[in-house]
Amino acid sequence: MGKAAVEPRQAVERRRSGSPAGWSFATERALVRVASQEEVDAAPAWRRGFLARARKDRRYYRVVEQTLPGGRDCAYFVVEDLGGRVRAVQPFFVRDLDLLHGIGGARSRLLAAVRRVLPRFAIVRAVMVGCLAGEGHLDRSADGEAAWVAEALHDALLPYARAARARLVVLKEFPSSYRETLSCFSQNGFARVPSFPMTRLSLGYESFDDFLRHGVGRSTRKNLRRKLRAAEAADPITLEVTADVQAIVEELYPLYLQVYDRARFRFEQLTPEFLGRVGRELPEKVRFFVWRQRGRVVAFSLCMLYGDTIYDEYLGLDYTVALELGLYFYTLRDIVDWGIRNGYRWYCSTALAYEPKRRLRSQLVPLDLYVAHTSKLANAVLRRLLPLLEPTHRDATLRSFPEYQALWK
Predict the structure, then answer these.
(1) Three-class SS state of 385
(2) Which of 15, 72, 190, 213 shows its CA 20 to 30 Å from the CA of 97?
(3) CA distances from 78 to 26, 62, 365 (A)
(4) What is the pLDDT of residues 63-112, one digit of tens each?
C-alpha cells in the first residue's frame, strides 16, 4: 500500500444528530454512520456481507447482543460510498477497558490499593470494533473492498469516539491475516499489539491414538496416556454430542462458571440464555460435547464448525473431579477423535491454558489489537506504553512457542 493510501483524508462534511446513535461522518470518498440493530436487520448488505458467511455470522451476533450483559452497548457502523451504496456493515460496542487487567504479584496489590482511592484508575471508556464474544473481522460487501472499508473506518473512528465520550478506539482481536489491509491503522496513529492468540492442531491422523504415536514427544505421550487411564479406571464417562442444550443449561452453566472463575484473564462472561440459544439459532455450526458420569454432567465443551476446522470455544468442568480424572485431556481426546471421524482437518482452541497446548505441539494463531487514544498527546505516550502493558510478553509459556515472534512481526 502506497503512502497516499495511508495518509488521512480531510473531512469535507461532518454531521451529528446530537446523539452518537444518530452520528454520521462524511469524507471525500465515504459516509460512515451509526445504525441500530433494527436498521441493519433490514439492510441487504447485512445479509450478504461477511456476517452472512462467517463462522460467527449475523445470527451469532444477535444471540450475543440479546443474551450478554454488554449486548446493549452493541451497534453498527454503516459504510456507504458517496453514491449511497452500502459497502459494509461493521459491528462495534462501547465498554470500559481496564488497561492493567491481569497484572499479578505485588503490582496487583498496589493497583488494588490505588483503586480504593481512585476507583477508575487506568480504566477508560473505549469504542471496540469487532465482536463482543469472539475475534474481529472486517466486513466488505465484495472481495477486494476490504482496504477501502478499512480506510473509511480509520477516518471515522476517532471522531466517533470523541462524540461518544470515549478515550480509546480498539480494533479487537483481528487475525494477523488482516495486517496488510489494516496497515492504514498501524501506519497512521494506531499501535498494533498482540492479543492472546488462538491455537490450532492438525487433525491429519487416523485417530487420537495415532496422533499420540506420531504427533507428540515421548514424555508428553506417556503423561497423556497415564491421565487418560485414570479417567478410564473410574466410573464410566459417557459422551453426548448435540446442538441444542436448552433442557440441560442449568447443569452446564455452573461448570462454565467454575472455569471462568479460575481464570486469571477473564473475557466476556456468558449467560445461561446464551448457552441455551446459540445452538438452536446456529444448529449447523454449533456442537455441544457433554460428558456424564453416573448420570451427572462433569464436563462440556461448546464448539463451532466452519469449513475444515472445529473451533473449541468454551469449556465447563466440574472441579470436584476434573483434576483427579484429567478431564481437560479426556475431553480433548474425544473432540479430536470426533473431528477426525467427521473429516475435519484442524482443531482450533481459544486463548489461554497454553502449557498443555504447547506440549501437544499446537501452533499459535496470532490475533492483533489496534489501539489509539483520542488525544494526540496521550496517544503519543500510549503508543510507547502499550508494548509494556500488553500481557503476552509476560507469558513465559507463550515465548516458548516457535511462532511467538509472529505475534509481533
Answers:
(1) helix
(2) 15
(3) 12, 17, 29
(4) 999 999 888 889 999 999 988 888 888 999 998 887 666 555 555 666 56
- CATH code, domain with 295: 3.40.630.30
Q: 118 and 99 in one domain? A: yes
Amino acid at residue number 160: Y
Q: Are residues 135 and 211 in the same domain?
A: no
- Find the angle CA(11)-CA(193)-CA(144) to the nearest 5 degrees: 55
Q: Let me know: does 241 contact 287? Beta carbons within 8 Å.
A: yes
Residues 183 and 287 in one domain: no
Neighbours of 29 (CB within 10 A): 13
Structural domain total, the chain: 2
Q: Count Cβ atoms within 10 A of the Cβ of residue 13 and give its class: 0-12 exposed, 13-18 middle, 19 or more buried.
A: exposed
Asked if 263 and 403 sit in the same domain, the reply is: no
Q: H or E stretch including 160?
A: helix 146-163
Cα Rg of the chain (Å, integer): 22
Q: Is 5 helix (H, G, I), strand (E, B) or coil?
A: helix
Return the bridge partners of 192, or none.
370
Quick check: 362 and 332 in contact, CB under 8 A? no
Q: Show the domain range for 41.
A: 3-197+367-407
For residue 167, give the C-alpha cell: 478515550
Residue 318: C-alpha distances to residues 187, 286, 302, 313 (Å): 47, 22, 15, 17
The C-alpha cell that represents 17 in the structure block = 444528530
Does residue 11 fall inside a structural domain?
Answer: yes
Start-to-end CA distance of the chain, whole Å, equals: 17
C-alpha cell at 352: 489461554
3-state DSSP percent of the chain in helix, strand and coil, to 5: 45, 25, 30
Give a yes or no: residue 351 inside a domain. no
Domain-located, residue 257: yes
Runs of H (alpha helix) within 164-295: 183-186, 208-215, 218-233, 249-262, 272-281
Residue 51 pLDDT grade (very low, low, confident, very high; cuts 50, 70, 90): low
259 shares a domain with 310? yes
130 found inside a domain: yes
Domain identity same for 248 and 270: yes
203 DSSP β-pair partners: none
Report the C-alpha gap between 2 and 6 in whole angstroms.
7
Which amino acid is residue 18, in one-letter code?
G
Measure Cα distances from 374 to 24, 191, 242, 289 in Å. 17, 13, 46, 44
Whether residue 137 sits in one domain with residue 102: yes
